[in-house]
Write a structure and sequence with these properties.
326 residues; alpha/beta; TIM Barrel; eight-stranded parallel barrel; 16% strand; binds ligand PBG
Length: 326
């Protein structure tokens, strides 16, 4: 008589490794990094232990370390001087903006050793903290915002970004950016669309990282997705692919494994997931109290995100995990 004993395949580390279905490889991890104008030394972000706002110099060193750890890429965010912010967020698209200088510095330092990505959004650069420009009633004006995104994306490609990541959830953003990149001779620059980005409370620590506060207690619910919806996310993904996205992303990650899994079943392009600031902060907060083993939980979470179907994961744990795995 046959006895069914799945435990046979769990007897030794080698056996478990042989039958393992999901592996986290540093090459599929992307580290989000922040570079801030006017800093003379890196500045810690209290709600994100281990993450800093970089100077251009410390950013270069981080890029070298990330490449050495075998990471797949870096996603850059820029924090301008407060005095450079205005309602239109136009300081971001200057060739000399802090984000564009950061992109150029990283490319100069590591070349093609990892993939250099840029966050293509206005919230870091606007005085009101919204991801777009506002109309007379104070609402985000979708189509006026597209014109800004186009200039921002082209300036990022000019600075050396190999991937631009429109993260503002404006309708038509991918198509507008693709057309502009092609017209400007940047046919090879890829678009990672933040296709299914939810209006999540898990972005809290990120707003410390980029010093963004939305004016008048506002929120992003008029452009980011309602986290109660999944079919809508699939529609967003289809639309972004039809507009020319090369890769699509679900964000945040862990509470959205169902979205990832359904997206995986439907699309064959590379699928990314963003394990966001709040997800990172929760692991650290519990680990600091000795309530969980932070490294073990981080690895379990990132593995679960891959198991659900993500090809790559953007995570603040990226370099640390890669170093632990090495
Ligand atoms: C918008 C942007 C946000 C994040 C990435 N890009 C914030 C937002 O939508 O409010 C959040 C990332 C994180 O929480 O780690 N430019």
């Amino acid at each position: 008589m046959t006895t069914i004993r799945p435990r046979r395949l769990r007897t030794t580390a080698a056996m478990r490794s042989l039958v393992r279905e999901t592996r986290v490889s540093p090459a599929q991890l992307v580290l989000p990094v922040f570079v801030r104008d006017g800093l003379s030394e890196p500045s810690a972000i209290e709600s994100m232990p281990g993450v800093v706002q970089h100077t251009l110099d410390s950013l270069r060193r981080e890029a070298v370390r990330a490449a050495r750890a075998g990471l797949g890429g870096l996603m850059l965010f820029g924090v301008p001087l407060d005095s450079d912010k205005d309602a239109a967020g136009s300081c971001g698209e200057e060739p000399g903006s802090i984000l564009n200088r950061g992109l150029a510095a990283v490319r100069a330092e590591v070349g093609d050793a990892l993939v250099v990505m840029a966050d293509t959004c206005l919230d870091e650069f606007t005085s009101h903290g919204h991801c777009g420009v506002l109309d007379a009633k104070g609402r985000v004006d979708n189509d006026a915002t597209l014109a800004s995104y186009v200039r921002l994306a082209v300036s990022q490609a000019d600075a050396g970004a190999q991937v631009v990541g429109p993260s503002g959830m404006m309708d038509g953003q991918v198509l507008a950016i693709r057309d502009a990149l092609d017209e400007e001779g940047h046919e090879e620059v890829a678009i990672l669309a933040y296709a299914a980005k939810y209006a999540s409370a898990l972005y809290g620590p990120f707003r410390d990282a980029v010093d963004v506060e939305i004016a008048d207690g506002g929120d992003r619910r008029a452009y980011q997705q309602d986290w109660r919806n999944v079919r809508e996310a699939l529609e967003e993904i289809r639309e972004d692919l039809a507009e020319g996205a090369d890769m699509v992303m679900v964000k945040p990650a862990l509470p959205y494994l169902d979205v990832l899994s359904r997206a995986r079943a439907e699309v064959d392009v590379p699928l990314a997931a963003y394990h966001v600031s709040g997800e990172y902060a929760m692991v650290h907060a519990a680990a600091e109290r000795g309530w969980i083993d932070g490294d073990a939980v981080a690895l379990e979470q990132i593995s679960a995100i891959k198991r659900a179907g993500a090809d790559m994961v953007l995570t603040y744990f990226a370099r640390h995990l890669a170093e632990v795995l090495q």
